[in-house]
Amino acid sequence: MRLIKICLLLLLAATCSVQPLLANSTAEPMKRLLVLGDSLTAGHGLAAGETFPEQLERALQQAGHNVTVINAGVSGDTTAGGLARLDWALRDDPQLVIVELGGNDALRGLPPEETFANLDAILERLDTAGVCIILTGMQAPRNLGVDYTTAFNQIYTRLASKHKVSFYPFFLDGVALDPALNQADGIHPNSAGVGVIVDRMLPVLVSVLETVNK
After folding, report:
1. Which of 76, 112, 134, 189 has the most CB atoms around its CB within 10 Å?
2. Active site residue 199
3. Which of 78, 84, 90, 67 is nearest to 37 (CA)?
């Protein structure tokens, strides 16, 4: 009888150790999504768990996607800064990159063609690396004048057309200028505002994720 019990225990242990392996063998392979951005990505003024990359990762996983989202946001970063650290960011070997840059260029009144050239170089580098790309647009403050805002706002549509990348026209869509969705500075979304951004972008991201590694 003792021998039979020992055999049953060994069989149970073997069964428990095999089941996770069988489950993992049918699971969607883990994908790495890098968000290259500024303070809107880094999570200025937000608590842990509230940033765009963290909320996005939870939303994607709840939608059934095995994704880890890497926060490559640096507060105050311009498109030139993003370009300068791009190779370092790509060391995480992502399959998909969201490019969220340009807001600080506009706030500093940098020449739109300079911003275009930096983003153009970023997209070229990402294309060479063979990753899927989602470009998110920004809009210049209206107090910079019609000529500047028109030229700046056209940067992103020009780049999306040139590089044939997935395009989300305005990162802060549905959030900008709404006091209930922004922090006291009126620039950075609060946790609820980030949630709105994630909800609005999610269909685009899910569509792109489904094409990764096919």
Report:
1. 189
2. no
3. 78
44 is catalytic: no
User: Class assignment of domain 29-209?
Assistant: alpha beta
Select which of 65, 77, 120, 188 is catalytic.
188
What confidence tens digit (pLDDT) does each residue in 50-71 have?
Answer: 999 999 999 999 999 999 999 9
Would you list the domain boundaries of the chain?
A: 29-209
147 included as an active-site residue: no
Catalytic residue among 38, 39, 77, 105: 39
Calpha distance 195→212 (Å, rounded) = 24
Class of residue 206 by CB neighbours under 10 A (exposed 0-12, middle 13-18, buried 19+)? middle
- Give per-residue pLDDT as tens, 99-135: 999 999 999 999 999 999 999 999 999 999 999 999 9
Active-site residue, from 17, 25, 147, 185: 185
